[in-house]
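Researcher: Please translate sequence to structure tokens.
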Amino acid sequence: MAINLAGGRPSAGRGQRRAPMAEINVTPLVDVMLVLLIIFMVTAPLLVAGVPVDLPDARANSLPQDQTPIQISLDGKGALFIDQMEIAPAALPAKLAALREARSDDARVYVRADRSLDYGRVMAVVGEVNGAGFKKVALVTDSAREQQ
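Model: Translation complete:
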């Protein structure tokens, strides 16, 4: 045990009170944050990359589709086709409106375009499809494996 020889107060020094320590020790906080950063850096690539799995074959039939999708194609010369029938670009809005009335609300539209075409030309066709009221529009591409 310690003995207080200065009088009534504990070692405050010449009649002044010691101020309470108001500093926060951030070292443990920084240590915890660095550990969390390392954990996220290690686990993030594992979440993005899929595991290659060789799936088994099945004899089950594919699920029935309500209807075949509408395929709009643009060839390298800019000719416009709906399914396999060539149409004039000016007739596209009317043809899409007729298809919209004939199909259900969830009709799918696939847009296929030659890679040599101008981006604006392709987006003009996509805009017409969207303007006709189709909600399910997909741009069709070749997979990277087929191009090599």
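Researcher: Any highlights?
Model: Strands lie at 70-74, 80-82, 85-87, 108-113, 136-139.
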